[in-house]
Structure to design on (303 residues):
């Protein structure tokens, strides 16, 4: 029997890297068997996890693969859920998070795998959404199966937003990208005040071989 | 390697990766100036540069790249 009073929320540390890598993998799959990142670069999930661990270990701030972006929910001293968020452009050199992520991938994933992804990039392009500078970005949240149904996703998102506003009182907007078929998350985000701003649709018939859905939603919450 | 030769080889990489043979490199050129230079093609460009010049960038170097001039300077320093 799970006792809800035992949950605590805290910032992720380097000791959580392996768990955060699992969270990224599960969030990428969005409840399906398709891990877009692994498929795009022709990697197994085990290989991808090792590269994610290496990337997170770099402690580069301000992107999806930054350990500092994540909050962790613990139960009985074990991580059971996590979610990430950062203020776009709020890093040492004011770089776009997509470029920081691209540099980490270029540095860690073998060049042969990156080169082989070239023919698959068209699959991604239609559903790739540029992040807005100065907007808070939510990305990669996951609750382990045995702890689902305890409102941990909502808690993580609310806490990430609360801390973002405390740190940046002038914050105007929070954004997140969600596959349209992830209906539970879309509903939870709506209940948390997010609205669908745009829909990005890929017409590639083979997109389902790589990604959970061919429709990516940009959801936003204004302050 | 002479800076001119680096620019010549780099131009060829840009034409190939970004799919535009009319690109003329400038030191102050950024991703915003080149159509198709996004995070996905950026990875391909970095990988191709390392292969063509036989070099390996440090992560710190990649994260300091803001303009084409920065890229040329790093390649130049690695080939000295």
């Amino acid at each position: 029997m799970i006792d809800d009073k035992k949950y605590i929320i805290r910032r992720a540390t380097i000791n959580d890297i392996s768990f955060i890598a699992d969270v990224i993998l599960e969030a990428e799959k969005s409840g399906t068997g398709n891990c877009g990142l692994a498929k795009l670069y022709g990697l197994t999930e085990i290989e991808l996890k090792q590269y994610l661990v290496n990337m997170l270990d770099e402690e580069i701030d301000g992107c999806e693969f930054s350990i500092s972006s994540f909050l962790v929910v613990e139960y009985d001293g074990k991580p059971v859920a996590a979610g990430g968020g950062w203020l776009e452009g709020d890093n040492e050199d004011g770089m776009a998070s997509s470029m920081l992520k691209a540099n980490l991938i270029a540095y860690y994933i073998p060049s042969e795998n990156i080169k082989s992804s070239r023919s698959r990039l068209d699959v991604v392009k239609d559903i790739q959404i540029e992040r807005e500078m100065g907007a808070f970005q939510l990305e990669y949240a996951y609750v382990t199966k045995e702890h689902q149904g305890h409102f941990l996703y909502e808690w993580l998102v609310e806490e990430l937003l609360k801390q973002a506003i405390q740190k940046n009182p002038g914050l105007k907007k929070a954004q997140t990208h969600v596959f349209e078929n992830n209906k539970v998350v879309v509903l939870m985000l709506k209940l948390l005040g997010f609205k669908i701003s745009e829909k990005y649709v890929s017409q590639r018939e083979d997109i389902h071989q790589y990604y959970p859905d061919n429709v990516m939603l940009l959801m936003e919450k204004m302050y | 390697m002479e800076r001119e030769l680096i620019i010549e080889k780099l131009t060829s990489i840009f034409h190939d990766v970004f799919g535009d043979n009319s690109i003329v490199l400038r030191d102050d050129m950024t991703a915003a100036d080149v159509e198709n230079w996004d995070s996905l093609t950026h990875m391909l460009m970095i990988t191709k540069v390392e292969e063509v010049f036989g070099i390996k960038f440090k992560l710190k170097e990649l994260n300091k790249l803001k303009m084409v001039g920065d890229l040329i300077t790093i390649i130049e320093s690695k080939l000295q």
Notes: Residues 28 and 35 of chain A are 5 Å apart (CA to CA).
